[in-house]
C-alpha cells in the first residue's frame, strides 16, 4: 500500500528525549481515540470505509449532472469549506460549482445576476438546519429560482444536506416542499464532515473522483491505525503539542507551495481553531492556525516568521510533481538577473524556494516540518483531510479538551438573534 | 471635510491612564515621522498629494484602455497586493485585470490557455527589477505573447513598473526592448507603494476612480497631520502597542464584514508583518497579523477568539451602507428558524452579526475595535490604505524598529538562488 502523504519533521527542533517523554501520552491518546471509535463515537474516522453512503451520493450526483451544468452550494464554515477545497484542488468537468456563504448583499446580488436557473441546481447545507446566514441566503435564492422556473418545478432544483431529523427545521421544510435530502451524518460535526455527503456530494456533482478521494483517506487511516504513535497524524500532533506547551509556539502556520491548496488552508484553519481553542479547567488554551501560500507569502510573512517572535511553527505542504510543467525560455542571457533561471522550470523554482525558506527558518532557529504529497490528486487530498482530522483528535486528547464542541460561538449567535428580533 | 473612516476603540480594554502613559511616546513618534517626512524620507505619506504623477498614470492608463480590454499584472507581495485589493473592492468597467504572482505551473498554465493576447496588455511590476518569481513568470508570458503577436509588435503590450534606474535589470531590459515604463518611486518600498503607480496604474486601467482614491487618502492624511495623537492611525497604533507590550496580545486580527475587503486583509497582513516583525537589540519582536472575514469566520475562528488564549486583538471593519440591498422574503412563517429573518435585509444580518461578535468578545473579556467606513468607495479605500501605512509608521517608532527594511527575507532568497544555480 502506497502512502500519498509523508511527513519530514527533522527540522522541528524537538529532541528524541522530548519525543520520548510525550510518547506514552500519545499512545494513551491513541488508545482513547480507538476505543471511542470502536464504540461508534469517532465516526468521522470510519467515513473512508463507508462505501454504501458513497454509492448513494454518487447516484444522487449523477441525477444532478443529467439535468444541470451548475450547482450553487449554500453553506458556511464546516458546511462548505471542505467542498470548496475539493473544488479548488481537483475541479471537475461535469458541473461548475459556485459557493454562497456570506450574507453580503454585494456578493449575493452579483451571484443573482449571473445565475441561469434552467441549468442550475442548489445544494443547501446546514447540519442543524437553523444556520442564520445559510437560511437567509437560501430564502433569497429560492425566491429568484421560483421567479424563473415557477413554484411547481422549483423543488427539482433543490438538494438539502441536513440531519434527517425532525429537530432540523430545514429537514421539515424539505419534507413539506419535497426537496431531495442528502443526509448529514448525525454524530459528525461540520468541520469533520468533508468525507461525508457534505463534502463529497458537491465534489461528485462537479465530476471529481470521490472514490479516489476516499481511497486516499482509507490508505492514510489504515496506516494510522497500524502505526499508532508513528503515523503522520500522531507525529504531527506530538510535534505541535510539544512546540506549544514547552516552547510557547502557539501559532501554527500551514504554508502550502501550491495555489490550488489555498482553500485547504482555510479548511485547516477551521478544524484547528474551532476544535482546540478551548477553556480547560478555567484556563483558555489552544493554538492559532495561520494559512499561508508559498512562494507568495515569502514576500509578505517570511520577514516575521524569520525575525519576529519565536512563537510559531511552520508546516510546509510540498507537491512533488505538478500536473503541468512550464519551462522558462532562455532570454536576455547578458543580464545575470534573467540568465540563471532561463531553461529552468517553474516547478523547480517553487521547489527550491520552499527549500530556501526551510533553510532560512532553520538558520533563524525556527522550527518547520514538511508534509509531502506526490501530486495534487484525489488520493492525496483524501489523505490530507483524514490526517488533519486525526491530528486534531490527537491534539484534543493531549490537551485534554473536547475537540468536538464549540461552546464559545453561542454568545455571539444569541446576541445577533436578539438584535435581529427587535 | 468629511471623514471616510472612523474608529471606535471603546472596547479595546485600555484605560485612559494607560493611554496617557504612552501619549508622550506617541507624540514623539508623530514628531519624528513628520520631521522625516518634511526631509523627504516618508514619501509614501505625500503620495496622496502628488497629482502630477497621477495625471501621468491616468494618461498611460487611457492609452491601454484604447487598445486592450484585459491586463495581466505580474508581480508579488508589495508589487501586486495593493492593485489586487483595489480591483476586488472597486472593480472597473474599462478593462479586466488578472494577476499572476506565484510560479505555480498549474496556475500559470491555466492562465496561458485563457489569454487572448490581441486584447491583452501586461504590467510587470518589480521595484528592484530582479524579483525571481516575477521575472520567471514574465519570461514565460512574454514568450507566449511573442508567439501570438510577433516580436515586432510585442513591446506595445508590455508596461514595466520598476525603479527608473540602471540598477534595475528590468529597467535595462525595458530600455533595450522599448517597453513603456511606469516609474516605481525610488524611495518607497513595495508595501507602502499602493498609492503610487504600482497600485494606481492597474486601478486606472480597470476604470477605478483613482482621483477619488487619492482624495480619500488626502482627507485621512490631512486629518492625521492636524489631529496628531488623536488621528485614527495614531490611536490604532497606540492601542495595538499597549495591547502587545503590556498584555502580550501579539496576534492582531483584522476582520472585515464584507467579502470585497478580503484582499485588503492580505494587504494588511504584509504591511503589518514585514514592517514590524524585526530584531531589536538582539530580541525578536513584532505582532502577527491575521486576516478574517465576517460573518464567515464566526463559523471558523470565533470559538478560538472567544475561548482560546487571550493573545489577540480584533479590529472589525464595518461597512455602514452597502451599494446593494437585498430583502429576505417572508416564507415558512410557521417555522421559527425562518420566520424571524423574513422581511429583514442581508445587510441588517451582517451588521447585527458583527455587533453580536463584538458583544461576545467583550463578554469573554477580549478587546476589539471597529473601523467604520461609510461604504466600499474609492475614498474609503484610499483612507484605509494611508491610515494603515501611517499606523505602521507609528508602530515602528513606538517599537523602535525600522519599519522600512526586510533583512529577514535575504537568507531564503540566497539559498534558493544557490539551489537554482546548481
From TrEMBL, chains A, B:
Protein name per its UniProtKB record: Glucose-6-phosphate isomerase
Alphabetical list of PANTHER family matching this protein: GLUCOSE-6-PHOSPHATE ISOMERASE
Pathway(s) annotated for this protein in UniProt: Carbohydrate degradation; glycolysis; D-glyceraldehyde 3-phosphate and glycerone phosphate from D-glucose: step 2/4; Carbohydrate biosynthesis; gluconeogenesis
Gene symbol of the encoding locus: pgi
Any single GO BP term: glucose 6-phosphate metabolic process
Enzyme class: isomerase
GO cellular component: cytosol
SUPFAM superfamilies: SIS domain
GO MF terms held by the record: carbohydrate derivative binding; glucose-6-phosphate isomerase activity; monosaccharide binding
Active site: 274, 299, 413
Compartments in which it is found: Cytoplasm
Residues of the signal peptide: none
Organism name: Candidatus Uhrbacteria bacterium RIFOXYB2_FULL_57_15
Keyword annotations: Cytoplasm, Gluconeogenesis, Glycolysis, Isomerase
Enzyme Commission (EC) number: 5.3.1.9
Function: Catalyzes the reversible isomerization of glucose-6-phosphate to fructose-6-phosphate.
Chief location category: cytoplasm
Similarity field: Belongs to the GPI family.
Catalytic activity: alpha-D-glucose 6-phosphate = beta-D-fructose 6-phosphate
Gene3D superfamilies, A to Z: Glucose-6-phosphate isomerase like protein, domain 1
Amino acid at each position: 500500500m502506497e502512502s500519498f502523504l509523508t511527513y519530514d519533521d527533522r527540522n522541528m527542533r524537538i529532541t528524541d528525549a522530548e519525543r520520548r517523554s510525550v510518547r506514552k501520552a500519545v499512545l494513551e491518546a491513541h488508545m482513547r481515540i480507538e476505543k471511542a471509535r470502536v464504540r461508534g463515537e469517532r465516526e468521522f474516522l470510519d467515513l473512508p470505509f463507508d462505501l454504501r453512503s458513497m454509492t448513494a451520493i454518487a447516484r444522487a450526483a449523477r441525477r444532478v449532472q443529467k439535468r444541470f451544468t451548475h450547482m450553487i452550494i449554500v453553506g458556511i464554515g464546516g458546511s462548505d469549506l471542505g467542498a470548496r477545497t475539493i473544488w479548488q484542488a481537483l475541479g471537475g468537468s461535469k458541473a461548475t460549482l459556485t459557493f454562497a456563504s456570506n450574507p453580503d448583499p454585494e456578493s449575493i446580488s452579483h451571484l443573482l445576476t449571473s445565475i441561469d436557473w434552467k441549468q442550475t441546481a442548489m445544494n443547501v447545507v446546514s447540519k442543524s438546519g437553523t444556520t442564520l446566514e445559510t437560511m437567509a441566503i437560501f430564502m433569497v435564492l429560492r425566491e429568484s429560482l421560483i421567479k424563473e422556473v415557477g413554484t411547481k418545478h422549483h423543488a427539482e432544483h433543490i438538494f438539502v444536506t441536513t440531519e434527517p431529523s425532525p429537530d432540523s427545521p430545514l429537514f421539515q421544510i424539505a419534507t413539506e416542499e419535497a426537496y431531495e435530502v442528502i443526509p448529514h451524518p448525525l454524530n459528525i460535526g461540520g468541520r469533520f464532515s468533508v468525507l461525508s455527503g457534505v463534502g463529497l456530494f458537491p465534489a461528485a456533482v462537479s465530476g471529481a473522483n470521490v472514490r479516489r478521494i476516499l481511497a486516499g483517506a482509507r490508505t492514510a487511516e489504515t496506516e494510522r491505525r497500524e502505526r499508532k504513535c508513528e503515523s503522520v497524524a500522531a507525529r504531527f500532533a506530538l510535534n505541535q503539542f510539544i512546540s506549544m506547551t514547552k516552547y510557547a509556539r502557539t501559532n501554527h502556520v500551514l504554508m502550502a507551495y501550491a495555489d490550488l491548496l489555498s482553500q485547504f488552508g482555510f479548511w485547516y484553519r477551521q478544524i484547528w481553531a474551532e476544535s482546540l481553542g478551548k477553556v480547560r479547567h478555567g484556563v483558555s488554551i489552544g493554538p492559532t492556525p495561520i494559512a499561508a501560500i508559498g512562494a507568495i507569502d515569502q514576500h509578505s510573512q517570511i520577514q516575521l516568521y524569520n525575525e519576529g517572535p519565536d512563537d510559531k511553527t511552520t508546516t510546509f505542504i510540498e507537491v512533488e510533481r505538478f500536473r503541468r510543467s512550464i519551462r522558462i525560455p532562455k532570454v536576455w542571457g547578458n543580464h545575470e538577473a534573467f540568465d540563471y533561471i532561463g531553461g529552468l522550470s517553474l516547478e523547480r523554482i517553487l521547489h527550491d524556494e520552499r527549500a530556501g525558506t526551510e533553510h532560512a527558518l532553520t538558520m533563524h532557529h525556527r522550527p518547520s516540518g514538511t508534509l509531502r504529497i506526490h501530486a495534487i490528486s484525489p488520493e492525496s487530498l483524501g489523505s490530507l483531510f483524514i490526517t488533519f482530522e486525526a491530528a486534531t483528535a490527537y491534539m484534543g486528547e493531549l490537551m485534554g479538551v473536547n475537540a468536538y464542541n464549540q461552546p464559545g460561538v453561542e454568545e455571539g449567535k444569541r446576541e445577533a438573534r436578539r438584535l435581529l428580533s427587535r
